[in-house]
Structures are given as C-alpha cells and as structure tokens.
Amino acid sequence: MAHPKLVAILECLKTAREEVEASFQRTFDQNFRLGNIDRTESLQEQKEVLRKATSTRGLSVEFHFEGFRVEIFLPDEAEVIPKWAENPDPTGKAKLATLAQELGILLFPPDWPLRESAARVVPAFTATELPEDSPGMLLPVNMGNRELPMLIRLLGEEATAYAPVTPQAPPRDQPASTEKLAASTAGVATPPPARTRGAGAHPVRARILPLLTRSLLKIKLPVEVILARTRKPLAEILQLAPGTIIQFNKSCDEPLELAVNGYVIARGEAVKVGDKFGLRILEMTLPPERYVVLSGRTSSRTEDARKVSTTK
Fold this sequence. Notes:
The longest helix is centred in the first third of the chain and has 17 residues, at 90-106. α2 (17-28) packs antiparallel against α4. The strands form two sheets. Strands 1, 2, 3, 4, 5, 6 and 7 form a seven-stranded antiparallel beta sheet that branches. The chain has a four-stranded antiparallel beta sheet with strand order 8-9-10-11, with no helix packed on it. It contains nine helices and eleven strands. Among the domains are: 4-160, 3-Layer(aba) Sandwich (Chemotaxis protein chec); 220-228 and 252-287, Surface presentation of antigens (SPOA). By secondary structure, it is α+β, with helices and mostly antiparallel strands.
C-alpha cells in the first residue's frame, strides 16, 4: 500500500503534467517528457535500478514541509544536466530557484504549507544514503532523448513513522463468541463516521484558487527591454530615414529598463547568453503609489476659508 502523501503527489502530477514538463524545459533548454505515471513503482521493487541511478551525480530538488521533506532526484546519466548547473552563476541560480518554486506550486496539494524549496546538483549517494527503505517511488522520464528514472521520496519523522495497516480476517473457530458480540451490540446505535481531513474531505472551493493560479501562470505577457526614451517634434520624426542617428540624453553606463506589459518592473545590464542577448537584473522597481489624501469636513472648510481670505 503506497504512502498517502505519495498518492497525493501523483494526483497533482497527473493534473499538472504539462506545466511540470514546461518548467523543466525552460530551466535546461532541452526536451523533457514525463513517462507513463501509471508505471510508477516503489523503491523496494526496483532496488537495482535505484542503486544504479543514485551511483552518479544528479539534480536534487528539496521541499521542506512541517514534519517531513520531499526530495526529487534526477540522475545525470549521459550528462543530460548542463554543466552550468553544478556551479551556477547568478542567472543559473535564478533558474534553479524558479524551478523549485514552480514545482512547489504544481506537485503538492494546496493545504501543504511549503516552508522552503531549493534545487542544486548533488554528488552520488553513499552506501548509507541509499533511500531504498524510505517511502518513495521511481517515475520514468525522458530528458534529452534519453529515458531516466526520477526518484521521488519522503524524508522526516512523519514520513518514516507511517506503517500501512493490513486488514485481518476474523477467526473461523469462534462462531459462538461472534454471535454473542453481535447480540450484545444490536441495541447500541452505531455513531456516524467522523469526517476526516483526507484528500476526499476537502471542499471543492479549496481547489479553486490553485487551479486559477495555474491558469494565470499560462498567460503570456510582452517583456521588453528599453534602451532609452526621448521626445522629438513631429517634424523631425517625419524626416527619419535609413542612416539617421537619434541622440538620447542617457549615458552608456546607465542600466536598461525591463518592462512587462508596458510597466517598468526592473533595471539591469545587458549580457550575452550563448549567441543570444540577455539581461541581468540589478534592481527591482516598485510600482508608483496611488493614494488620495482624505480630509475631514472641518479641515476642508478651514482650507476653503483660507483660500477666500487670500483671494480677498
């Protein structure tokens, strides 16, 4: 019998399958596909596959909850994980942090309070770190046109304290005692079963906000990098032609502006990412404050009287 927390993770994974695949693809810039989720097997059934997968370095994404932790380990077989992930620069650290944050939203139920998440490349597991006895599962994934086993395991006191309960059949050699027990309890009203806080007891409204959040994450907004701004008379704009040079009142050392949907949210400097252009964010820009000064009737009348006295 699988751990109930692993069952909940699998259900969230089936719901957010496309978002999880897109998150890995954005991070590593290569193809990533989840295999058949129904083929997921426990660690006790695949000990040899587990030992082979953990004998090399890999990507570890940890999620810290109250009383337990969840770790996702992706082995680096055939060097499918990029080299920059081992010693990432600020841009690489931001990519890994974004991956951990997105997976923290997609992979877990909304009533699990996530305290911390982090993604990093870790070395191979030692003999004492093999998680074959901890509750977990192996999920087939395809990354860089290569099939890999992705490890999902639970850690912590709450995870290891769980023990599946196996229902036991009543003994056959005690029919008389069974009849007496049934007769004695016939007149006692059976209390209604208590409503537990399991996966099926959550109201539908508790799932509305996460589903709307996932839909909002799919909306694409225009992201622009603004070099400089200036104002020119209409006559000069009409005279623009190939070869015309426009001068801006901005130094070459000043940072560029990053705008999302027309609103400036950050400033940064231009960087080269491979053969592409990029922007390293240096500071975030707060939106302009909108406020209205509210005054009482007494203060407003006093100011009106002052205005009248000054006009006289």
